Amino acid sequence: DGGITQSPKYLFRKEGQNVTLSCEQNLNHDAMYWYRQDPGQGLRLIYYSQIVNDFQKGDIAEGYSVSREKKESFPLTVTSAQKNPTAFYLCASSLKGRISNQPQHFGDGTRLSIL
Amino acid sequence: RKEVEQDPGPFNVPEGATVAFNCTYSNSASQSFFWYRQDCRKEPKLLMSVYSSGNEDGRFTAQLNRASQYISLLIRDSKLSDSATYLCAVNIGVTGTASKLTFGTGTRLQVTL
To answer: Three-state SS string across A55-86, please?
Structure first.
């Protein structure tokens, strides 16, 4: 069945370690996004990509990196430069429609914690 | 002023009640609007898009007021299963770009017996 798959569901990061969160979609969506959700702060956009081999910084890109080598995949790396990585990470995708009125659909998230 | 604002609640209502939430946005160029439902420790799920003329989906009605820059969600005949956090999302949008949404922090609804 079609959807967005994030893995792992839970991830623990040691001090100074980079970790990569996976996001795969088989919806044939053009655009993909990464958000971070902290309690009481809503969703904040980290990075987004409209097309393969292209991506843009969102509102809180520092300490994160992404790649978009395939249409269906948009992995997020949380680097050691991100000092407060504990959060719920959500990947989303959407069609790149006219006037950008396409809603986003979300994967079921990855919870990242510091050891 | 935040770009998108919601009353965090919680709204505690009895089963069968009608409840409404508002969401205000600051950018008058905003072009598309959505309501999402998020259950505790789960991902947001699209509830409905909000169209200029207002739209209804079963017990749920969404409306847009461009003059006052807010959208609303009305839930009639509340069910226990409606208990969740409701997020509004607003897209400034420029033709050809990705759907870059700004989310509110959500309004929590608790429906009780």
So the answer is: EEECCCCCCEEECCCECCECCEEECCCCCCCC
Taking CA atoms, what residue in B is nearest to A47? B100
What's the confidence (pLDDT) of residue A105?
A: 94
3-state secondary structure of B82: helix
Q: Are A42 and B105 inside 8 Å of each other by CB? A: yes
Burial of B111 (0-12, 13-18, 19+ CB in 10 A): buried
Q: Do the Cβ atoms of B36 and B46 come closer than 8 Å?
A: yes
Average pLDDT, rounded, for chain A? 91
Q: What pLDDT was estimated at residue B98?
A: 61
Q: With an 8 Å Cβ cutoff, is B97 touching chain A?
A: yes
Interval A33-87: pLDDT, tens: 999 999 877 899 999 998 899 999 999 999 999 999 999 999 999 999 898 999 9
Cα gap B63→A83, rounded to integer Å: 41
Percent helix, strand, coil in chain B, to 5, is: 5, 55, 45
| Chain A residue with minimum CA distance to B44 | A106
Could you tell me the two tokens for A68?
A: 């978009």
